[in-house]
């Protein structure tokens, strides 16, 4: 008898053009926590995408909310599905939850919930050949009514899933440094994946997009001297001198620990490349041979250029140009060239190879559903 799981992909979606938007699926997973029991409840599958929250919930009023992003892929033959590194996202959600006084979701519960959400929506996992994925969005909230500024009695953990392509696309993208707005305070919530680090960015990233910049980059909030991260993803600078390749990633308390970045750092080490985690000065940007944005939704985005307004600090260096508008730009990929750089291509091929089951998973990153 033919195996019944996983079901084939639905034929109501144009799998060659999945895009990056919300699509309704069969349902999501919920678990609830009450301070009185000190327990997360058994997982429940809920078909209504609208969740039930009290209007006075601190999630809605005080931003007591955190989320995660990870992906599931169909393996070759389309008859198996694997989730990429859910254990890392589970521990990152615990890190974020601590910042916002939400009880930790146990790692096992997180992994079971993610597997259940994928399994119960398996027909929405894109076909292997498309290279697209099922995006998984776990979330935690303070959910019961609470007026005073103290933690409420009840919390909710949900896992939503939906099929997606990659955010930002696959072509080189121009980045703009955010000068007028700081993403997170020096000792604040910058390393937590909480909505409060994202909502204030929306109007700036929208404005930047209209001006031709597909991605925005944040420097450290205290002095605007060091690179923190992109608004949607982590920063990786590539140094290539002859055959020697080094990936440089920011050491900062204000950045989210990107699972994609950590994974490509491992892949880079395995290729025999160096990896340096250290403060990255703005002035170093012209030294990089490539810059990449790394995130679950983004995968690896080749950065065409990085522009800083009202700046005249890098003058005279290779890759640097100054505009009549007082902005300076460091260019990594010239206009007209739509190809990612060599290092981006190598890392992305290997990362996707592992995720899609085309390459041996020697790191143990695939969790089959
Ligand atoms: C992700 O990459 O999973 C994120 O959560 C970033 C978001 C802006 C799409």
From TrEMBL:
Keyword Transferase: yes
An annotated GO BP: branched-chain amino acid metabolic process
InterPro entries: Aminotrans_IV, Aminotransferase-like, B_amino_transII, BCAT-like_C, BCAT-like_N, BCAT_family
Superkingdom field: Eukaryota
Keyword Transferase: yes
Cofactor(s) essential for the protein: pyridoxal 5'-phosphate
Keywords, sorted A to Z: Aminotransferase, Pyridoxal phosphate, Transferase
Pathway stated in the Swiss-Prot or TrEMBL entry: Secondary metabolite biosynthesis
GO MF, one annotated term: branched-chain-amino-acid transaminase activity
Modified residues (N6-(pyridoxal phosphate)lysine): 193
Family statement: Belongs to the class-IV pyridoxal-phosphate-dependent aminotransferase family.
Protein name: Aminotransferase
Natural source organism: Triangularia setosa
Organism lineage string: Eukaryota, Fungi, Dikarya, Ascomycota, Pezizomycotina
């Amino acid at each position: 008898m033919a195996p019944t799981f996983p079901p084939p992909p639905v034929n109501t979606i144009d799998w060659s053009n999945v895009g990056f938007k919300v699509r309704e699926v069969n349902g999501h997973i919920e678990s609830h926590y009450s301070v009185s029991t000190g327990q997360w409840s058994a997982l429940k599958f809920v078909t209504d995408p609208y969740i039930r929250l009290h209007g006075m919930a601190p999630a809605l009023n005080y931003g007591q909310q955190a989320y995660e992003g990870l992906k599931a892929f169909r393996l070759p033959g389309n008859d198996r599905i694997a989730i990429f590194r859910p254990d890392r996202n589970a521990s990152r959600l615990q890190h974020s939850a601590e910042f916002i006084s939400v009880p930790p979701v146990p790692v096992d519960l997180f992994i079971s919930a993610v597997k259940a959400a994928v399994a119960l929506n398996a027909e929405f996992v894109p076909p292997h050949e498309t290279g697209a994925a099922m995006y998984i969005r776990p979330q935690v909230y303070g959910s019961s009514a609470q007026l005073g500024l103290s933690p409420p009695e009840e919390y909710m953990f949900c896992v939503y899933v939906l099929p997606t392509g990659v955010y930002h696309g696959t072509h080189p993208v121009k980045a703009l440094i955010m000068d007028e707005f700081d993403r997170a305070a020096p000792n604040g919530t910058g390393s937590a994946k909480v909505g409060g680090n994202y909502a204030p960015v929306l109007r700036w990233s929208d404005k930047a997009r209209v001006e031709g910049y597909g991605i925005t980059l944040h420097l450290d909030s205290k002095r605007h001297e060091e690179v923190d991260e992109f608004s949607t993803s982590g920063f990786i600078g590539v140094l290539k001198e002859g055959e020697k390749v080094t990936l440089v990633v920011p050491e900062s308390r204000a950045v989210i620990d990107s699972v994609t970045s950590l994974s490509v750092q491992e892949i880079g080490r395995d290729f025999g490349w160096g990896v340096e985690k250290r403060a990255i000065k703005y002035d170093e940007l012209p030294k990089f041979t490539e810059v990449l944005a790394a995130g679950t939704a983004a995968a690896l985005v080749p950065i065409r250029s990085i522009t800083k307004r009202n700046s005249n600090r890098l003058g005279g260096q290779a890759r640097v140009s100054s505009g009549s508008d007082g902005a300076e730009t460091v260019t990594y990929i010239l206009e007209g060239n739509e190809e990612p750089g060599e290092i981006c291509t190598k890392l992305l091929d290997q990362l996707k190879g592992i995720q899609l089951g085309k390459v041996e998973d020697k790191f143990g990153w695939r969790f089959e559903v």
